[in-house]
Specification:
Distance between the termini: 48 Å
CATH superfamily of the largest domain: Thiamin diphosphate (ThDP)-binding fold, Pyr/PP domains
Order of helices and strands: EHEEHHHEHEHEHHEHHHEHEHEEEEHEH
CATH topology of the largest domain: Rossmann fold
Number of domains: 3
Structural class: alpha/beta
Low-confidence stretches: 133-139
Mean pLDDT: 86
Strand content: 15-25%
Largest sheet: 6 strands, parallel
Helix content: 40-55%
CATH class of the largest domain: Alpha Beta
Shape: globular
Number of helices: 15
Length: about 425
Protein backbone atom coordinates (compact mmCIF):
# COMPACT_ATOMS: atom_id res chain seq x y z
CA UNK A 1 0.00 0.00 0.00
CA UNK A 2 1.21 3.49 -0.91
CA UNK A 3 -0.13 6.63 0.79
CA UNK A 4 0.54 9.98 -0.89
CA UNK A 5 0.01 13.18 1.13
CA UNK A 6 -1.03 16.25 -0.81
CA UNK A 7 -1.80 18.43 2.22
CA UNK A 8 -1.21 18.57 5.98
CA UNK A 9 -4.88 17.81 6.72
CA UNK A 10 -4.67 14.50 4.87
CA UNK A 11 -1.51 13.63 6.76
CA UNK A 12 -3.12 14.35 10.14
CA UNK A 13 -6.21 12.33 9.20
CA UNK A 14 -4.12 9.31 8.18
CA UNK A 15 -2.01 9.57 11.33
CA UNK A 16 -5.13 9.14 13.45
CA UNK A 17 -6.41 6.07 11.59
CA UNK A 18 -5.39 2.71 13.06
CA UNK A 19 -6.50 0.90 9.89
CA UNK A 20 -4.11 2.85 7.62
CA UNK A 21 -0.62 1.33 7.58
CA UNK A 22 0.97 1.78 4.16
CA UNK A 23 4.49 0.60 3.37
CA UNK A 24 5.37 4.04 1.95
CA UNK A 25 4.24 7.50 3.09
CA UNK A 26 5.06 10.05 0.40
CA UNK A 27 4.64 13.80 0.96
CA UNK A 28 4.19 15.86 -2.21
CA UNK A 29 4.67 19.60 -1.93
CA UNK A 30 6.74 22.43 -3.41
CA UNK A 31 9.96 23.36 -1.65
CA UNK A 32 12.16 21.47 0.75
CA UNK A 33 10.36 22.44 3.97
CA UNK A 34 9.62 19.55 6.29
CA UNK A 35 5.94 18.78 7.01
CA UNK A 36 5.96 15.63 9.11
CA UNK A 37 4.74 16.31 12.64
CA UNK A 38 3.56 12.71 13.01
CA UNK A 39 6.92 11.27 11.81
CA UNK A 40 5.29 9.18 9.10
CA UNK A 41 6.91 10.38 5.88
CA UNK A 42 9.33 7.97 4.20
CA UNK A 43 9.83 10.01 1.02
CA UNK A 44 9.43 13.70 0.10
CA UNK A 45 8.82 14.78 -3.48
CA UNK A 46 9.51 18.56 -3.73
CA UNK A 47 7.09 19.28 -6.58
CA UNK A 48 3.53 20.44 -7.16
CA UNK A 49 0.71 17.93 -7.55
CA UNK A 50 0.16 18.96 -11.17
CA UNK A 51 3.83 18.36 -11.94
CA UNK A 52 3.66 14.91 -10.33
CA UNK A 53 0.56 13.96 -12.35
CA UNK A 54 2.18 15.19 -15.57
CA UNK A 55 5.25 13.08 -14.82
CA UNK A 56 3.20 9.95 -14.05
CA UNK A 57 1.28 10.28 -17.32
CA UNK A 58 4.53 10.08 -19.27
CA UNK A 59 5.72 6.87 -17.60
CA UNK A 60 5.31 3.72 -19.72
CA UNK A 61 3.77 0.58 -18.17
CA UNK A 62 6.04 -2.20 -16.95
CA UNK A 63 7.87 -3.55 -19.97
CA UNK A 64 9.09 -7.10 -20.72
CA UNK A 65 12.65 -5.81 -20.38
CA UNK A 66 11.97 -4.88 -16.75
CA UNK A 67 10.72 -8.42 -16.11
CA UNK A 68 13.86 -9.82 -17.74
CA UNK A 69 16.00 -7.56 -15.59
CA UNK A 70 14.24 -8.87 -12.48
CA UNK A 71 14.91 -12.44 -13.62
CA UNK A 72 18.57 -11.57 -14.14
CA UNK A 73 18.94 -10.09 -10.65
CA UNK A 74 17.15 -13.08 -9.13
CA UNK A 75 19.46 -15.50 -10.93
CA UNK A 76 22.59 -13.60 -9.88
CA UNK A 77 21.39 -13.39 -6.28
CA UNK A 78 20.64 -17.13 -6.19
CA UNK A 79 24.07 -17.89 -7.62
CA UNK A 80 25.74 -15.73 -4.98
CA UNK A 81 23.85 -17.55 -2.24
CA UNK A 82 24.79 -20.95 -3.65
CA UNK A 83 28.46 -19.97 -3.87
CA UNK A 84 28.45 -18.70 -0.28
CA UNK A 85 27.00 -22.04 0.85
CA UNK A 86 29.65 -23.94 -1.09
CA UNK A 87 32.49 -21.73 0.17
CA UNK A 88 31.40 -22.03 3.81
CA UNK A 89 31.46 -25.82 3.52
CA UNK A 90 35.15 -25.72 2.57
CA UNK A 91 36.43 -23.49 5.38
CA UNK A 92 38.65 -25.43 7.81
CA UNK A 93 37.73 -23.45 10.93
CA UNK A 94 34.78 -21.72 12.61
CA UNK A 95 34.33 -18.22 11.17
CA UNK A 96 32.00 -15.29 11.72
CA UNK A 97 30.18 -15.94 8.40
CA UNK A 98 29.46 -19.43 9.77
CA UNK A 99 27.79 -17.85 12.80
CA UNK A 100 25.56 -15.64 10.63
CA UNK A 101 24.58 -18.60 8.44
CA UNK A 102 23.94 -21.10 11.25
CA UNK A 103 22.01 -18.77 13.56
CA UNK A 104 19.64 -17.68 10.78
CA UNK A 105 19.33 -21.24 9.46
CA UNK A 106 18.61 -22.89 12.82
CA UNK A 107 16.57 -20.11 14.45
CA UNK A 108 13.31 -21.74 15.65
CA UNK A 109 10.07 -20.67 14.02
CA UNK A 110 8.34 -17.97 16.01
CA UNK A 111 11.59 -16.60 17.45
CA UNK A 112 12.79 -13.05 16.82
CA UNK A 113 16.31 -11.82 16.10
CA UNK A 114 18.29 -8.77 17.14
CA UNK A 115 21.53 -7.85 15.37
CA UNK A 116 24.44 -6.00 16.91
CA UNK A 117 26.28 -3.27 15.07
CA UNK A 118 29.63 -3.45 13.31
CA UNK A 119 30.26 -6.95 11.89
CA UNK A 120 27.19 -8.95 13.13
CA UNK A 121 24.65 -6.94 11.12
CA UNK A 122 26.91 -6.86 8.05
CA UNK A 123 27.53 -10.60 8.18
CA UNK A 124 23.80 -11.29 8.59
CA UNK A 125 23.10 -9.13 5.55
CA UNK A 126 25.67 -11.01 3.47
CA UNK A 127 25.60 -14.59 4.75
CA UNK A 128 22.19 -15.21 6.34
CA UNK A 129 20.36 -18.34 5.29
CA UNK A 130 17.59 -17.88 2.73
CA UNK A 131 14.27 -18.93 4.22
CA UNK A 132 11.16 -20.05 2.38
CA UNK A 133 10.40 -20.20 -1.31
CA UNK A 134 10.21 -16.44 -1.75
CA UNK A 135 13.98 -16.06 -1.63
CA UNK A 136 13.79 -13.46 1.12
CA UNK A 137 16.64 -13.53 3.61
CA UNK A 138 15.30 -13.50 7.16
CA UNK A 139 11.76 -13.74 5.85
CA UNK A 140 9.00 -11.55 7.21
CA UNK A 141 8.08 -14.31 9.67
CA UNK A 142 11.29 -13.49 11.58
CA UNK A 143 10.93 -10.23 13.50
CA UNK A 144 14.36 -8.61 13.25
CA UNK A 145 15.63 -5.50 15.01
CA UNK A 146 18.78 -3.40 15.29
CA UNK A 147 19.75 -0.02 16.69
CA UNK A 148 22.57 2.48 16.49
CA UNK A 149 24.07 3.59 19.81
CA UNK A 150 25.61 7.00 20.42
CA UNK A 151 29.04 5.46 19.79
CA UNK A 152 27.73 2.84 17.39
CA UNK A 153 28.02 -0.32 19.45
CA UNK A 154 26.80 0.81 22.91
CA UNK A 155 23.44 0.02 24.49
CA UNK A 156 22.73 -2.99 22.28
CA UNK A 157 22.30 -5.58 25.02
CA UNK A 158 19.75 -3.50 26.93
CA UNK A 159 17.87 -2.61 23.76
CA UNK A 160 17.70 -6.27 22.73
CA UNK A 161 16.19 -7.14 26.12
CA UNK A 162 13.57 -4.45 25.57
CA UNK A 163 12.97 -5.63 22.02
CA UNK A 164 12.26 -9.19 23.22
CA UNK A 165 9.83 -7.80 25.78
CA UNK A 166 8.17 -5.64 23.15
CA UNK A 167 7.65 -8.37 20.52
CA UNK A 168 6.67 -10.86 23.22
CA UNK A 169 8.61 -13.79 21.82
CA UNK A 170 11.97 -15.54 22.39
CA UNK A 171 14.76 -13.50 20.81
CA UNK A 172 18.34 -14.23 19.77
CA UNK A 173 20.86 -11.40 19.93
CA UNK A 174 24.07 -11.66 17.86
CA UNK A 175 26.64 -9.25 19.30
CA UNK A 176 30.41 -8.67 19.28
CA UNK A 177 32.64 -8.82 22.35
CA UNK A 178 33.37 -5.07 22.54
CA UNK A 179 29.70 -4.17 22.14
CA UNK A 180 28.81 -6.72 24.83
CA UNK A 181 31.29 -5.14 27.24
CA UNK A 182 30.03 -1.60 26.48
CA UNK A 183 26.63 -2.60 27.89
CA UNK A 184 27.51 -5.46 30.21
CA UNK A 185 25.27 -4.03 32.95
CA UNK A 186 22.38 -4.79 30.62
CA UNK A 187 22.71 -8.36 31.91
CA UNK A 188 21.02 -7.14 35.09
CA UNK A 189 17.82 -6.81 33.00
CA UNK A 190 18.06 -10.53 32.31
CA UNK A 191 18.84 -11.52 35.89
CA UNK A 192 15.82 -9.56 37.13
CA UNK A 193 13.53 -10.55 34.27
CA UNK A 194 13.09 -14.33 34.33
CA UNK A 195 9.40 -13.95 33.50
CA UNK A 196 10.20 -12.06 30.30
CA UNK A 197 10.61 -13.76 26.89
CA UNK A 198 14.02 -15.47 26.90
CA UNK A 199 16.93 -13.65 25.28
CA UNK A 200 19.67 -15.89 23.89
CA UNK A 201 22.88 -13.87 23.50
CA UNK A 202 25.24 -15.19 20.82
CA UNK A 203 28.47 -13.43 21.78
CA UNK A 204 31.07 -13.43 18.99
CA UNK A 205 34.44 -13.07 20.70
CA UNK A 206 37.28 -12.25 18.33
CA UNK A 207 39.06 -10.38 21.12
CA UNK A 208 38.69 -6.87 19.80
CA UNK A 209 37.23 -4.71 17.07
CA UNK A 210 37.18 -6.92 13.98
CA UNK A 211 35.73 -4.37 11.59
CA UNK A 212 38.83 -2.17 11.67
CA UNK A 213 40.88 -4.91 10.02
CA UNK A 214 38.77 -4.33 6.88
CA UNK A 215 39.69 -0.63 6.72
CA UNK A 216 42.76 0.92 5.01
CA UNK A 217 44.23 1.81 8.41
CA UNK A 218 44.98 -1.89 8.98
CA UNK A 219 47.63 -1.78 6.27
CA UNK A 220 48.81 1.75 6.94
CA UNK A 221 50.25 1.32 10.44
CA UNK A 222 52.41 -1.27 12.15
CA UNK A 223 50.76 -4.07 14.14
CA UNK A 224 52.15 -2.76 17.45
CA UNK A 225 50.28 0.52 16.77
CA UNK A 226 47.14 -0.99 15.22
CA UNK A 227 46.38 -3.48 18.00
CA UNK A 228 46.17 -1.12 21.03
CA UNK A 229 44.49 1.72 19.10
CA UNK A 230 42.10 -0.09 16.73
CA UNK A 231 42.16 -3.80 17.53
CA UNK A 232 41.78 -3.07 21.27
CA UNK A 233 41.92 -6.67 22.61
CA UNK A 234 40.36 -7.00 26.08
CA UNK A 235 41.08 -10.64 27.12
CA UNK A 236 37.83 -10.70 29.11
CA UNK A 237 36.54 -13.66 31.15
CA UNK A 238 32.98 -13.77 29.82
CA UNK A 239 32.17 -16.96 31.68
CA UNK A 240 32.96 -15.21 34.96
CA UNK A 241 30.78 -12.26 34.00
CA UNK A 242 27.83 -14.51 33.17
CA UNK A 243 28.32 -16.50 36.37
CA UNK A 244 28.22 -13.30 38.43
CA UNK A 245 24.81 -12.51 36.92
CA UNK A 246 23.57 -16.09 37.37
CA UNK A 247 23.12 -16.70 33.64
CA UNK A 248 23.65 -20.06 31.89
CA UNK A 249 26.79 -19.93 29.73
CA UNK A 250 28.31 -22.04 26.94
CA UNK A 251 31.57 -21.62 25.05
CA UNK A 252 32.00 -22.69 21.41
CA UNK A 253 35.28 -22.83 19.53
CA UNK A 254 34.57 -25.12 16.55
CA UNK A 255 31.80 -25.56 14.01
CA UNK A 256 30.69 -28.93 15.35
CA UNK A 257 29.86 -27.40 18.73
CA UNK A 258 27.91 -24.43 17.35
CA UNK A 259 24.68 -26.18 16.38
CA UNK A 260 24.56 -28.19 19.61
CA UNK A 261 25.14 -25.07 21.72
CA UNK A 262 22.46 -23.04 19.92
CA UNK A 263 19.85 -25.79 20.17
CA UNK A 264 20.73 -26.32 23.83
CA UNK A 265 20.39 -22.59 24.59
CA UNK A 266 17.05 -22.31 22.82
CA UNK A 267 15.85 -25.45 24.60
CA UNK A 268 16.48 -23.89 28.02
CA UNK A 269 13.65 -21.42 27.45
CA UNK A 270 15.45 -18.88 29.67
CA UNK A 271 18.03 -16.13 29.25
CA UNK A 272 21.50 -17.46 28.43
CA UNK A 273 24.79 -16.62 26.72
CA UNK A 274 26.65 -18.60 24.03
CA UNK A 275 30.21 -17.35 23.53
CA UNK A 276 31.55 -18.16 20.06
CA UNK A 277 35.32 -17.80 19.83
CA UNK A 278 36.66 -16.76 16.41
CA UNK A 279 40.06 -15.63 15.15
CA UNK A 280 40.32 -11.95 14.30
CA UNK A 281 43.66 -12.40 12.54
CA UNK A 282 42.08 -14.64 9.85
CA UNK A 283 38.63 -13.03 9.70
CA UNK A 284 39.42 -10.69 6.80
CA UNK A 285 41.08 -13.49 4.84
CA UNK A 286 38.03 -15.75 5.00
CA UNK A 287 35.62 -12.93 4.19
CA UNK A 288 37.64 -12.06 1.10
CA UNK A 289 37.97 -15.70 0.12
CA UNK A 290 34.17 -16.09 0.12
CA UNK A 291 33.64 -12.77 -1.65
CA UNK A 292 36.21 -13.72 -4.29
CA UNK A 293 34.40 -16.95 -5.06
CA UNK A 294 31.04 -15.16 -5.20
CA UNK A 295 32.44 -12.48 -7.50
CA UNK A 296 33.90 -15.08 -9.87
CA UNK A 297 30.68 -17.12 -10.08
CA UNK A 298 28.38 -14.12 -10.47
CA UNK A 299 30.64 -12.57 -13.11
CA UNK A 300 30.73 -15.84 -15.07
CA UNK A 301 26.94 -16.17 -14.99
CA UNK A 302 26.55 -12.53 -15.99
CA UNK A 303 28.73 -13.17 -19.04
CA UNK A 304 26.62 -16.19 -19.97
CA UNK A 305 23.30 -14.37 -19.71
CA UNK A 306 24.50 -11.87 -22.29
CA UNK A 307 24.00 -14.65 -24.87
CA UNK A 308 21.46 -16.92 -23.17
CA UNK A 309 18.41 -16.53 -20.88
CA UNK A 310 18.79 -17.33 -17.16
CA UNK A 311 16.31 -20.25 -17.51
CA UNK A 312 16.49 -22.93 -20.20
CA UNK A 313 13.15 -24.70 -20.87
CA UNK A 314 13.43 -28.46 -21.39
CA UNK A 315 11.62 -29.33 -24.62
CA UNK A 316 11.88 -33.10 -24.48
CA UNK A 317 13.49 -36.03 -22.68
CA UNK A 318 13.56 -39.29 -24.61
CA UNK A 319 15.43 -42.57 -24.61
CA UNK A 320 16.02 -45.52 -26.91
CA UNK A 321 16.93 -49.01 -25.65
CA UNK A 322 19.90 -50.86 -27.09
CA UNK A 323 21.30 -54.38 -26.85
CA UNK A 324 24.92 -54.91 -27.91
CA UNK A 325 26.57 -58.33 -28.22
CA UNK A 326 29.68 -58.73 -26.07
CA UNK A 327 32.90 -60.10 -27.48
CA UNK A 328 33.90 -61.22 -23.99
CA UNK A 329 31.90 -61.99 -20.84
CA UNK A 330 31.42 -59.27 -18.23
CA UNK A 331 33.88 -59.44 -15.34
CA UNK A 332 31.12 -58.53 -12.87
CA UNK A 333 29.02 -61.60 -13.67
CA UNK A 334 29.49 -64.90 -15.40
CA UNK A 335 26.12 -64.72 -17.11
CA UNK A 336 25.04 -62.80 -20.18
CA UNK A 337 26.46 -62.22 -23.62
CA UNK A 338 24.58 -58.99 -24.33
CA UNK A 339 24.92 -55.49 -22.83
CA UNK A 340 21.56 -53.73 -22.32
CA UNK A 341 21.06 -50.03 -21.74
CA UNK A 342 19.39 -46.79 -22.81
CA UNK A 343 20.58 -43.86 -24.91
CA UNK A 344 19.02 -40.72 -23.36
CA UNK A 345 18.48 -37.45 -25.21
CA UNK A 346 17.58 -34.14 -23.56
CA UNK A 347 16.63 -31.15 -25.72
CA UNK A 348 16.66 -27.62 -24.25
CA UNK A 349 15.79 -24.26 -25.74
CA UNK A 350 18.32 -21.45 -25.51
CA UNK A 351 16.96 -18.26 -27.02
CA UNK A 352 16.10 -19.05 -30.63
CA UNK A 353 18.21 -22.22 -30.72
CA UNK A 354 17.66 -25.78 -29.56
CA UNK A 355 20.48 -27.86 -28.11
CA UNK A 356 20.58 -31.58 -27.49
CA UNK A 357 22.57 -33.53 -24.94
CA UNK A 358 23.14 -37.27 -25.14
CA UNK A 359 23.84 -39.65 -22.26
CA UNK A 360 23.64 -43.31 -21.34
CA UNK A 361 21.89 -45.31 -18.65
CA UNK A 362 23.37 -48.81 -18.49
CA UNK A 363 23.09 -50.75 -15.19
CA UNK A 364 25.91 -53.25 -14.95
CA UNK A 365 24.80 -56.79 -14.02
CA UNK A 366 26.47 -58.02 -10.87
CA UNK A 367 27.25 -54.47 -9.74
CA UNK A 368 23.97 -52.54 -9.88
CA UNK A 369 20.81 -53.92 -8.31
CA UNK A 370 18.46 -52.03 -10.64
CA UNK A 371 17.32 -53.40 -13.99
CA UNK A 372 16.83 -51.52 -17.25
CA UNK A 373 13.08 -51.63 -16.58
CA UNK A 374 13.60 -50.02 -13.17
CA UNK A 375 15.64 -47.26 -14.83
CA UNK A 376 12.90 -46.58 -17.38
CA UNK A 377 10.35 -46.11 -14.59
CA UNK A 378 12.64 -43.65 -12.81
CA UNK A 379 13.47 -41.81 -16.04
CA UNK A 380 9.75 -41.20 -16.53
CA UNK A 381 9.66 -39.43 -13.16
CA UNK A 382 12.77 -37.39 -13.97
CA UNK A 383 11.40 -36.47 -17.41
CA UNK A 384 8.13 -35.17 -15.97
CA UNK A 385 10.05 -33.06 -13.44
CA UNK A 386 12.41 -31.60 -16.04
CA UNK A 387 9.58 -30.66 -18.37
CA UNK A 388 7.90 -28.70 -15.56
CA UNK A 389 11.02 -26.92 -14.30
CA UNK A 390 13.38 -25.00 -16.62
CA UNK A 391 17.06 -25.65 -16.04
CA UNK A 392 18.85 -22.65 -14.46
CA UNK A 393 21.76 -21.48 -16.56
CA UNK A 394 23.78 -21.40 -13.34
CA UNK A 395 24.04 -25.21 -13.23
CA UNK A 396 26.87 -24.78 -15.71
CA UNK A 397 28.95 -23.38 -12.85
CA UNK A 398 28.90 -26.91 -11.36
CA UNK A 399 29.92 -27.10 -7.70
CA UNK A 400 26.89 -29.24 -6.78
CA UNK A 401 24.36 -27.01 -8.56
CA UNK A 402 23.07 -29.74 -10.88
CA UNK A 403 22.56 -32.04 -7.91
CA UNK A 404 20.76 -29.26 -6.03
CA UNK A 405 18.54 -28.57 -9.06
CA UNK A 406 17.58 -32.24 -9.43
CA UNK A 407 16.95 -32.52 -5.69
CA UNK A 408 14.64 -29.51 -5.93
CA UNK A 409 12.58 -30.71 -8.91
CA UNK A 410 12.35 -34.44 -8.11
CA UNK A 411 10.81 -36.22 -5.15
CA UNK A 412 13.67 -37.23 -2.88
CA UNK A 413 16.38 -35.87 -5.16
CA UNK A 414 19.44 -37.64 -6.46
CA UNK A 415 19.91 -39.62 -3.24
CA UNK A 416 17.02 -41.91 -4.17
CA UNK A 417 18.00 -42.24 -7.82
CA UNK A 418 19.51 -45.45 -9.07
CA UNK A 419 23.29 -45.10 -9.52
CA UNK A 420 23.08 -45.77 -13.25
CA UNK A 421 20.41 -43.06 -13.65
CA UNK A 422 22.24 -40.60 -11.46
Amino acid sequence: MLCVFVCSCAQEWCAGRSDVSPALWVYVGPGAARHDAAHLVTAHLPMTCSALLAHLRTQPPTSPSQSQYTQLLTALSKTAHEEITSALSTLPTLTEPHVARHVTDLLPRGHAMYLGNSMPIRDADMYAQVRGGSGDVLSSAVRTGANRGASGIDGVLSTAAGFAEGVGRPTTLVIGDLSFQHDVNGLSLLRAGETRPPLTVVLINNNGGGIFSFLPIAGAVATDQFEPLWGTPQHTDFEGICRSYGLPYQRVSDLGQLQRALESAWGLNRHSVVEVVTQRNTNVHWHRYIQGRVSESVSQLHRWVQVAPPQLPVLSVSWVPYALPLTRPLTSTANGTTRHGLVVRVRVQCGGSVYEGVGEVAPLPGLHTESVGDCVAQLCMVRDALLRHPVPLSVGLLGGRMEAYLSHVTCGGVDVMYPSVR
